Amino acid sequence: MGEKDGRIHISSEDESYEVTYLMVCTGSDTVIPPIKGLTDVDYWTSKEALESTQLPRSLVIIGGGVIGMEFASFFNSMGVRVAVVEMMPEILGAMDKETSAMLRADYTKRGVNFYLNTKVIEVGKAGVTVERDGKTTVLEADKILVSVGRKANIGQVGLDKLNIELHRSGVKVNEHMQTSHPHVYACGDITGHSMLAHTAIRESEVAINHILGVEDKMNYDYIPGVVYTNPELAGVGKTEEELIAGGVSYRVQKLPMVYSGRFIAENELGNGLCKLILDEDEHIIGCHLLGNPASELIVVAGIAIEHGYTVEEFKKNVFPHPTVGEIFHETLFA
Question: What is the pTM (predicted TM-score) of this model?
């Protein structure tokens, strides 16, 4: 990659291109932590786990984030003994802690063992050695899945030849997805902002619109996050933890999902929660759902948050009956 006469030159072993604008979307790679003994065992990342045609007898998942929990859900449903090791006090990172804890409790009942506030110090043929409160334990592991996060793939791309500015997590961009080079845009995981496929699609739309002169800008405040477990967990907007840390006043309005008759019928009396977070002026600023189909419902809350709906304004929307989505209406009147 290089630049000459105002044009960007890109070349590989077989082909070369000369362009006016460039969009870099090289994604991300799995973070491999420096755990003693890890390079000496045949461990999985998400790639190998998806390619496997055989089930392990037991699986230790290092990392209780979104990807780790989704694999925990799948392998648990297939009868594999699953243990999840997480360094933080709760699973699922920055997602709402109340619904995350409810999901963890659900999977604990199904036989998944969770080791929170726990550090992996070594892996080997005997298993995975973990430490908590100064005490060590060896977990049996027919297979190990490493799932501690992902990092922007900025190596071997040639960005250095264009002096593209980076930040700690990836390529630095403005609200139009423009890098420090006015003709180079970056979208997707490489920016390090929100490593989600639907975020990347929106970022690409913003970048293309800016190139075409269409007014548009990226806003990360209303990006839904979904955990595709069973039940699903989803969230959009602010969390309680985020607001408490910022000293922002708020109140919560919530209701168990069983207040929806259709939810009961479709989920065999499954557990769940609809949680709305409101600011001092009664605007909806956050929503967190546990229960199927949270991934389908969360977009409704996202639209309400993005457009600044108050409780009274959201109440006026008519939800068809019977639907699981009625839970929003029920929660607002709770």
Answer: 0.93
